[in-house]
Design brief:
By secondary structure, the chain is an alpha+beta fold. It has 2 helices and 7 strands.
Length: 139
């Protein structure tokens, strides 16, 4: 089995709150995570993440940069996902659930009051942001 390619968006509002969705499907069903999904054949990851967010939440986003490359290896479910995670902001629309078969909730969270459990990609993104912030203040 080969690794699969996904993508995610760390969408922040002007107050620094993070937009998260609660997954209904495996992998990581029941976890809160970043909106995103599968990259289609011959689709650039930046195009894919904007498409996935529009399809899931009905909003248009602007990407602000690559935060990290997330990797999920789950031997129990024979899964291996690689996913670039982009920083983003909403440029039009209000987030709402458009895929109730895949997601059960969408909400904004302060970084110091995040829900549990979080997906691996979300935790990896947060760790990367923390390292970047620490490096900026010490470097």
């Amino acid at each position: 089995m080969n690794p699969r390619l996904g993508c995610g968006a760390a969408i922040f509002d002007t107050d620094g709150n993070l937009l998260l969705v609660r997954r209904l499907r495996e992998p990581e069903a029941g976890c809160w995570g970043l909106p995103g999904g599968k990259v289609e054949w011959l689709e650039e990851t930046q195009v894919a993440v904007r498409r996935e967010v529009r399809e899931e939440l009905g909003v248009a986003i602007e990407l602000t940069g690559l935060i990290c490359i997330s990797e999920l290896i789950d031997t129990t479910h024979a899964l291996h996902w690689i996913a670039p995670v982009y920083g983003a902001k909403i440029i039009s629309g209000e987030p709402r659930l458009l895929k109730p078969q895949a997601l059960s909730a969408v909400d904004w969270f302060s970084l110091d009051q995040l829900p549990e459990p979080l997906t691996i990609a979300t935790r990896q993104m947060l760790e990367n942001l923390q390292r970047s912030s620490l490096a900026a203040t010490t470097g």
